[in-house]
């Protein structure tokens, strides 16, 4: 596995300026795909559920900050539908007309409606003195676009990438879908890199592994042009150097050394020449096994056969829900 921190080449910079990940909907804590970045990572988690927030904050993990706050596009009171399965709770009411066609719709049964105070992401981060954010993860059961709208300043000035849950069918009444979130992020200079989909079947056990595309985790990264402008706007050379290195580390975390190299070609002047050469050489060595193995006759047929076998044994939840396994090129 390629080191996301360039094998220690820039240790002092990462120690002084670790990657700052903001996780909105932090239930469960740090996600597995971010564990390779733990050496130089500060996570800020927003969790509106008081019990889950208390559990996370009480774990005493280093470099973790958990805020018990609900986020929205503006400050004010919002109603939260607490469902039988806590992970399905949302500010939007469940779409019964749709959910009744799929198994286990009772997970979305609303057991209580509470009114909570909400604030914007921009305001909460500013009040906490946490302005320089590198990556934003949002998974809040349909309210993702509202939260993104409340974080426009943060998105425009600081964020390098976004991982956001997007729905392709309206699981909740009135919720925005992928078609609404995608143009919003593209207008802010982000480009869609990958989707980790989840499929639902109307009848368990019938047909192949996939059902209808229900929702996905979407990975967006800022374009090199937008990032170059963002890096150049940093206050001094140390800040520009740190932002460049952290952006490239995020690209490596998700398995895109080619994108990191593209950004380095664009903004490499913020590094000393020897450091730029060392970083370039490191990125050129970041080749996955599938790339190192040359093409050979029958490779496509072998791939199809192995993929079919993998698909047969791949997990399917209760015979009706299946999904992708990774986002980007890393597990």
What does this molecule look like?
The chain has a single domain, classed as 3-Layer(aba) Sandwich (Rossmann fold). It has helices at residues 11-16, 50-57, 96-99, 121-127, 144-149, 152-157, 178-186, 224-232, 237-253, 257-267, 273-284, 289-292, 299-313, and strands spanning 19-24, 41-46, 64-67, 70-71, 76-83, 110-119, 135-138, 161-167, 190-200, 212-222, 321-323. Helix 2 links the parallel strand 2 and strand 3. It is built from 13 helices and 11 strands. The strands form 2 sheets. Strands 3-2-1-7-8-10-9-11 form an 8-stranded mixed beta sheet. With 331 residues, it is an alpha/beta fold. Helices cover 34% and strands 22% of the residues. The longest helix is centred in the C-terminal third of the chain and has 17 residues, at 237-253.
């Amino acid at each position: 596995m390629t080191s996301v921190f360039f094998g220690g080449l820039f240790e002092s910079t990462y120690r002084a300026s670790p990657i700052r990940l903001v996780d909105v909907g932090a239930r469960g804590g740090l996600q597995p795909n971010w564990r390779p970045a733990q050496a130089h990572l500060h996570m800020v988690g927003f969790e509106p559920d008081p019990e889950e927030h208390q559990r996370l904050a009480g774990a005493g993990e280093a470099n973790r900050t958990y805020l018990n706050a609900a986020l929205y596009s503006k400050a004010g009171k919002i109603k939260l539908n607490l469902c039988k399965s806590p992970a399905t709770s949302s500010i939007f009411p469940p779409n019964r007309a749709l959910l009744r066609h799929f198994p286990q719709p009772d997970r979305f049964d609303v057991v209580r409606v509470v009114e909570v105070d909400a604030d914007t992401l921009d305001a909460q981060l500013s009040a906490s003195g946490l302005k320089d954010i590198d990556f934003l993860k949002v998974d809040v059961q349909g309210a993702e676009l509202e939260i993104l709208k409340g974080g426009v300043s943060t998105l425009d000035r600081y964020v390098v990438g976004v991982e956001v849950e997007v729905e392709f069918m309206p699981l909740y009444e009135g919720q925005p879908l992928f078609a609404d979130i995608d143009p919003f992020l593209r207008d802010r200079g982000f480009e869609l890199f990958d989707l980790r989909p989840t499929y639902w079947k109307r009848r368990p056990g019938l047909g192949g592994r996939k059902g209808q595309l229900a929702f996905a985790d979407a990975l967006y990264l800022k374009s090199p042009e937008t990032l170059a402008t963002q890096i150049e706007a940093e206050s001094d050379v140390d800040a520009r150097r740190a932002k460049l290195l952290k952006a490239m580390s995020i690209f490596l975390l998700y398995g895109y050394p080619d994108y990191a190299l593209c950004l380095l070609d664009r903004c490499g002047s913020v590094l000393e020449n020897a450091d730029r050469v060392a970083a370039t050489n490191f990125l050129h060595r970041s080749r996955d096994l599938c790339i190192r193995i040359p093409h050979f006759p029958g490779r496509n047929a072998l791939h199809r056969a192995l993929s079919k076998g993998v698909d047969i044994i791949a997990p399917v939840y209760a015979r009706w829900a299946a999904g992708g396994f990774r986002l980007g090129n890393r597990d």
